[in-house]
Amino acid sequence: MNDAQLPEADAHAALPLAGITVIDLTLARAGPICVRHLADWGANVIRIEPPGDGEGVTGKRDGFDFQNLHRNKRAIQLDLKSPEGHAAFMKLAATADVVVENMRAEVKHRLKVSYDDVNAINPRIVYGSISGFGQTGPYGKRAGVDQIAQGMGGLMSITGEPGRGPMRVGIPIDDLTAGNLLAMGISMALFQRHSTGRGRWVQTSLLEAQVFMLDFQAARWLISGEVAKQAGNDHPTGIPTGVFPTSDGHINIAASSGRLWERLCETAGHPEWHQKPEWKTQADRSKDRVAINAAIGEVTKHKPSAYWIDVFESAGIPCGPIYNIDQVFADPQVQHLGMATPMHHPRLGTEMVVANPVQMSGLPRAVYTPTADAGQHTDEVLGGLGYSKEEIDAMRAKGIV
Predict the structure, then answer these.
(1) Domain 241-328: CATH class, spelled out
(2) For 81-135, how does the pLDDT look when each residue is reduced to its tens digit (9 = 90+)?
(3) Architecture label for domain 3-214+358-397
(4) Which end of the chain is more exposed for a tag (fewer CB within 10 A), N or C?
(5) Which DSSP string do the residues of 343-392 spell out, in sequence order?
């Protein structure tokens, strides 16, 4: 029997982060994305929220966004501003492995839950932080949100059609990337702790994540001195790569290399395109992208998308349909990959949430516990720290939990 076939409790215990305790102080999206990775791979995550059940940036607790973000975590309520609440946090932190937060840089110091505060009582702690612009520097005290970082990080200047003005992308890409990067950084710090015995403060920011994600567009400026501009649906340097009309919609085609360009010319029934001197090299094709795209579109528009996908795939030319999101989850390959996974909630029933995209041989990808109700595990967690029922009830009467 492999690990993927083990009973649920045993399979959870076999996950790579089983035995790691994470205190989750995160809000909004970037921090929860990071912690969701840790929770999905077996960490014992204790999410600390303030007392009450208000609506946050990600909507109501029973809404799609919150439910998708916070599976596989336990939830407690604790007022960190109160002496009793702070003391309970420090008891948790004394034996935890990881703390994750994405407060404004100064807030954690004001609450006395910073890396320095926790490291003083637990030198093994791996403390993860996401901020808008970094923990220090001229913008260190600013609050940051995804769209602001998209603008300051250059993404909006290269997204959209030329002449249409700056355009944000359709997902909170900086929140998502910062969360993904912090999860990787925390994992590396945990790995190093095996040899050093000490934790680290691991940091990233929305701005750093966005500049990193510029990737070749950033290198294009840093090394070649070229400032990228908006290119719409065209690849900024490799032509033809883009969106082309069909008789029933549109498809993407990517044939920018010399070999693929020659194949596309043959497959489209126009081998003479490959012989045109002005279209010989990738640089030449990039200069004449409007004419090339128009010529291809005049061919593809006469047959349906499925016809062209079959033809181009048979010729080894990368291509694909352009889906709405409902069509994404109806696609047989997406279904084969299991990217929608069930979460069985005692109040809300079975809901489908987005699966973790990482697969490990012999290990399942599953939702072991549904998104917790507000304060669902407060008594359980505080009781595990040695608090009596009477002490917990007294804290609840004061609004601390």
Answers:
(1) alpha beta
(2) 999 999 999 999 999 999 999 999 899 999 999 999 999 999 999 999 999 999 9
(3) 3-Layer(aba) Sandwich (3.40)
(4) N
(5) EEETTTEEEEEEPPS---TT------SPPPPTTTTHHHHHHHTT--HHHH
